[in-house]
Amino acid sequence: MLKRLAMALSILMTCGTVMAEPGYYFVSVYDNKDQKSVDFRYWTTNFPGRGQTIWPELGFGYGVTSRWYTEIYASYIGSSRSDLKLDSWNWQNDYLLTQGQYPVDVALHTNLTRGHDSDEGYTLELGPAMQTDFGRLQVNGNVFLERTYRSVDGGATQMKYQWQTKYRWKPMLELGVQGFGELGDWDHWASRDQQSHRAGPALFGSVPVGRESSIKYQAAYLIGSIYGRHGYMFTSRIQYIF
Fold it and tell me: At 90, phi and psi to the nearest 5?
């Protein structure tokens, strides 16, 4: 499994400058066999003295097996609810490579994005998602590579990361911290003032709404830099699981 993961990463890195899209929600992989979900995501970017940009997303996910989760979702973009337009279609797949037999669980995350405009091409995001536990404390770390493929030049492969720590206090309320960043080309990172690094507090939880259904949520407020500019991001995700 690990050899296949390394091979997939090397193929992506050798394929051809485009900035990776700023990370907006944390990717965590878990066993959800046979579970179906309606998935709503909403994130914003705010820069002092500039307008706000919002990205609402709506999708449908399914736990195909105890290891494989797949989801298709549409992403919209705009400066307000009144001027939203379709930005892209996305197909996400997460596959668990380990399931508790080692101290750290590892999954392979992929996300294929097709821009709504025909000249935008495809973007592939790929990399390992990792998780370990210390009692009630759960620690996650992800490293993803992202590359855009166009008919002309899609640019270089970009590297970005995610990390998360949360304390599982109660099923309905868990407290934590999330962090995201974009480093530039995977083999030649951008200068420090052009990179992105931001972090902030996060809330998580799951609320039962029936014998077989629940609503799962997460939200975070992030402060830091987005490609060298100081800014703020709000990210949220609500899933109706049945």
Answer: -135, 140
**What tens digit of pLDDT does each residue of 70-118 get?**
999 999 999 887 889 999 999 999 999 998 899 999 999 999 999 887 6
Distance CA 226, CA 105 (A): 30
Q: Which pTM does this prediction carry?
A: 0.86
Percent helix, strand, coil in the chain (nearest 5)?
A: 10, 60, 30
DSSP for 69-106, written as a single string: EEEEEEEEEBSSGGG-EEEEEEEEEEEES-SSSSSSEE
227 contact partners, CB below 8 Å, separation of at least 6 = 19, 22, 182, 194, 195, 196
DSSP reduced 3-state for 75: strand
Cα–Cα distance measured from residue 62 to residue 71, given in angstroms and rounded to the nearest whole number? 6
- DSSP tag of 117: S
Q: At 102, list the tokens.
A: 């080692």
* Distance (Å, whole) CA 120 – CA 122: 7
Is 12 strand, coil or helix?
helix
Q: Give pLDDT, residue 4.
A: 44
* Nearest one of 224, 229, 222, 230 to 43, comparing CA atoms: 222
Is the Cβ–Cβ distance between 62 and 92 less than 8 Å? no
